[in-house]
Amino acid sequence: MEDIVKIKGMKAGLMLSFTRGAKFDDIRANIQNKLESGNGFFIRGTTAYVQKDTLPTDQIEVLRKMFHQHGMLFRTELPKIKVETSIKEEKKKLPPEEDPQQMIVINRTLRGGQEVRTKSSVLICGNVNPGAQVIAGGSIDIRGTCRGMVHAGAFGNTNAFIVADQLLPMQIRIADMIARSPDVMEKSETPERASIKNGQIVIEPITR
Question: Model pTM?
Fold first, then answer.
């Protein structure tokens, strides 16, 4: 039997499409089954997308709530990240406040379903909870516990890094590299830093 919900992986997350003529109740049940069965695609902190106007607004909201309950984001618009653009070209297009060498400050905790997206670096004075998402062109510094999805160097900056008082996310991304946390994560007594070394993401303790 053909699966009525098809999943396509992208750099920004997952694209969902549905069999033509499928009933919404069947689509919802199919997705719910995937979410509850621990489907390898549906990882906490990941963003799922559907093409705009694929479903009515009320049905979109039903799916959005389902994904949020499982620590995921749900969007109807694809992110406008041009990964093929070089860092020099991208930098020329950015106003001063959007330069990766600059930093924006977020003085609050990010809760599930909330998102910060910027071409600058980010300092977050608070926690990044499960289901929250931070995407930055530069580095990310979290003065708290990070359990959401964080993506530093989103425009290809391999020198970007991620720092947190407690670094416990389900997924870390730096440039085009991805690291997933183990099933059992131990809290560190010291802040930690994630960066790219020798072609892989390495997490090591630091002193602030």
Answer: 0.53
